[in-house]
Amino acid sequence: MTIEVKVPVLPESITEAAVLEWHKKAGDYVAEGENLVDIETEKVTMEVPAVNSGVLQEILQPAGATVTAEQVLGHIDETATATASAAATAATQPTLTTDLATDSATESSTASGSTVSSEARDPGPAVRHLAAEHGIDLASVAGSGKDGRATKEDLLTLLEQSTKPKATAPPTAVKTPVATFPQTPDLPTLQAGRTERREPMSRLRQTIARRLVEAQHTAAMLTTFNEVNLQAVMDLRKKYKDAFEKQHATRLGFMSFFVKACIEALQRFPAVNASIDGRDRVYHDYYDIGIAVASPRGLVVPVLRDADQKTFADIESGIRNFGDKAKAGTLSLDELSGGTFTITNGGVFGSLVSTPILNPPQSAILGMHKIQARPMAEQGEVVIRPMMYLALTYDHRIIDGSEAVRFLVTVKDSLEDPARLLLHI
Predict the structure, then answer these.
(1) What is the pLDDT of residue 156?
(2) In the Cβ-directed half-sphere of 24, how many Cα atoms lie within 13 Å?
(3) Is the pLDDT of residue 257 over 90?
(4) Any idea what the Cα angle at residue 323 is, between residues 320 and 326, rounded to 5°?
(5) Is residue 170 part of a domain?
(6) 265 and 395 share a domain?
(7) Is 424 a catalytic residue?
(8) Would residue 77 show up in a list of annotated catalytic residues for this protein?
(9) What is the pTM of this model?
(10) d(CA 108, CA 325)
(11) 343 to each of 42, 169, 257, 263, 319, how far by Cα in Å?
(12) Among 129, 137, 396, 424, which one carries the catalytic annotation?
């Protein structure tokens, strides 16, 4: 019996995805539950496991192809054996060649001689883009994909071969005139030391770009700055970090203090926790705090749900869990959806001051920065204190300047005197 391998159901906000990488090839045996292929959406990378054990009979959508929800990616023959299927695949595969002059009519037929339609040999958008970029005629490429489709690896191989130095014949004593003909433009020749690389943006990067441009075009963004003395927080961490870690099995970091301070300020200034929907201002009576986290694929913002109901230990554990998942690429769509307010920490990369950009449809975002020892005046004396610049970017359509400034002052006051977070004063 043949089983279809399908794209998982995608959330309503996501209309399409891209085939990122196949972990099996046609003819390979797969076990039930084993990951077959990775699908990249604009938010996360999703694994598509085998629903039954068997042999991967064929791959219909190669890496780079754009797919939609529940589209068939390939077929699994649950009655075949790996050996028999591999032999059948080898018997039906066309002979591969790297000769650019191969007749295109020969390439458009399978090993059995049947003609394959141009639609069936469509290599997908990623391959077409790479071919157009380097001036490669796909009709002249004997592809290694199904039905002779050209794959990205085929094109990269051709490009690599085109840049290899060619052997030259030794000079002869007698020079014979040679007729010259105009050369047809082929693969580009790159000068030594002036190479270029072009890679398609991942769907996550495309989404980041689209949302940032959207924020700049639709919101009236302003940024207000302040600075905070973190001496009290650092003293508190130093005093209780060992006991805290022993009690809760997690480190006491800075982020839990900032999350708590922001929640205190959001409760006092609800407009900062609100959003715009058409002509309405939507107030959120819950506090879902997005925490910007760097991942190998780009910046992601997982959300701490009901952060106002979490303890310091809950917040620290949640953020650490987000960081681990971001590195492993295992954050779920639910963990990346929603959020009423965001905190981003450019200080971990050494940023001293910056202006963060809103994360739509949210109306505000807090930017943390590098902690730097600076001379400060206290009670008429100059002392050295661990200082951090804070930046609050806000949508002026919904938040007044005075609200934004007082919000940031509330955050500053809570951090400079952490007892306020317990007493709510």
Answers:
(1) 74
(2) 29
(3) yes
(4) 150
(5) no
(6) yes
(7) no
(8) no
(9) 0.62
(10) 44
(11) 21, 65, 12, 11, 12
(12) 396
